[in-house]
TrEMBL record, chain A:
Keyword Ion transport: no
Enzyme Commission code(s) on record: 2.4.2.-
Keyword Glycosyltransferase among record annotations: yes
Protein name: Glutamine amidotransferase protein GlxB
Signal peptide: none
Source species: Candidatus Rhodobacter oscarellae
Molecular function terms, GO-annotated: glycosyltransferase activity
Assigned keywords, A-Z: Glutamine amidotransferase, Glycosyltransferase, Transferase
Chain ranges of the Glutamine amidotransferase type-2 domain: 2-291
A Pfam match: GATase_6
From TrEMBL, chain B:
Its EC number(s): 1.4.1.13
Domain Glutamate synthase alpha subunit C-terminal: 43-183
Superkingdom, taxonomy of origin: Bacteria
Lineage: Bacteria, Pseudomonadati, Pseudomonadota, Alphaproteobacteria, Rhodobacterales
Root EC class: oxidoreductase
Coiled-coil regions listed: none
Any one Gene Ontology molecular-function term assigned to this protein's record: glutamate synthase (NADPH) activity
UniProt keywords, alphabetically: Oxidoreductase
InterPro entries in the record: Glu_synth_asu_C (IPR002489), Glu_synth_asu_C_sf (IPR036485), Glu_synth_lsu_3 (IPR012061)
UniProt keyword annotation of Oxidoreductase present: yes
Protein name from the UniProt record: Glutamate synthase [NADPH] putative GlxC chain
Residues spanning the signal sequence: none
Keyword Membrane: no
Amino acid sequence: MCGIVGLFLKDKSLEPELGAMLTEMLVVMSDRGPDSAGIAVYRGADDGQVKITLQSPDPASGFDGLAERLGAQVTQIDTHAIVSCAPGEAAAMRDRIRAMPELRVMSQGDAIEIYKEVGLPRSVAERFDIPALQGSHGIGHTRMATESAVTTLGAHPFSTGADQCLVHNGSLSNHNDLRRRLAKRGVTVETENDTEVAAAYLTWRMNEGDNLGAALEAGIEDLDGFYTFVVGTKTGFGVLRDPIACKPAVLAETEQFVAFGSEYRALVNLPGIDNARVWEPEPATVYFWEH
Amino acid sequence: MQELDLAQMELRAMNAALQSQETGSNLRFEILNPRGAHAVAVGLDAPIEVTVRGSTGYYSAGMNQQATVRVDGSAGPGVAENMMSGKVVIEGDASQYAGATAHGGLLVIKGNASSRCGISMKGIDIVVHGNIGHMSAFMAQAGNLVVLGDAGDALGDSLYEAQIFVRGAVKSLGADCVEKEMRPEHLETLARLLAEAEADAKPEEFRRYGSARQLYNFDIDNAGAY
């Protein structure tokens, strides 16, 4: 089991509420996964800055003097820090971060920020003040660990490409083979986790020219196992279930938003849900929306 | 009519109130604010009428006996699982394995049912006004599955003696499931079930599927495969 929620806003007037709505949805899913929780939020895509989300197991020393060491603006929130820089400086910034082994990169992109830690959704959301975050879309996950250890790095969402993230309910059976196949193509996967392999696979497909929908279509052929995936990109939001489709999923759409929940009860407080189109996504069928 | 409001009371207290009704009590209840909760109106054993105003989560009306439960919304996975008798009506859609392993009673789904509808059914009658998903009636042993819409892949895989009636298209039949002739007694059964399920369809529009009974005994010609 795991719990997934997602919210893709069409109505900009809801953007100030994104973090609060996502948090409430994820907290309802707490009993689907008590091990770790995480949220990816997309915001500020047009401010001309690249954001790198960092995590440190020991933030007191890990983030000490980080702004000076990196020569960039750093905003620390608990165990995470957002480094902002001009797009042209991002590659050099990543090189500097790579030389600091006490820091882990959670995500990088124009819009994405990822916050994830061991613990229940309520505590993780409060640590990072998620309810105060505004944004255009976001994805949350609460994990019941199966394929790798209960650690921050094993928590979802996983981000393997700029502004991309993926969360997963299920388990993949061919992730070791796929990890080796991706390595031959120069794609590295940081952890032992099966979900990160799926994220890296989609990143590889999109680097080859696929859009999110085409990458997910290719995944139906190449990914073996049980999965309900929810995927975010800078402007897009996608859902895919495996052909057996035993991992639950509910989608809801109104003129204001598209929402995903592992169960309907995650969606009951959304505005206008009583008049939303609510349905169970079909097996092996790609759903995606773009801004 | 007695109202039980899940915004005001715990789920267990609500179920306990319904379960404590005496046989023959013939009472009516309305459950408010289900908000997708799990296990709503489970384990009932009296001829009471329960209407749930909203959508439910996992296993609503499970293990039902005698009671009539109507969900005025959609139902999550495993609705009416292991029902023994009585009637369960879902006004909206039902998620996977609706009516699983159920021994008796009637389950009516006014919308669509998703995958594994009627899996291992053991005597229940299920009428779905819309479509059903893949692997429905998998290993179904007894009872009737009636579908006014279409059926997904692998319908009736490894079927025993349950009967399946489909009005629309069948994407594919599962192992050992075949189309069979519609005889007068089947049309009679269908007419009765359609009437009980408030379904506007004619028995003559359906096709019947059942077990070819080729998996009941081991075929010695297949020994080489093991």
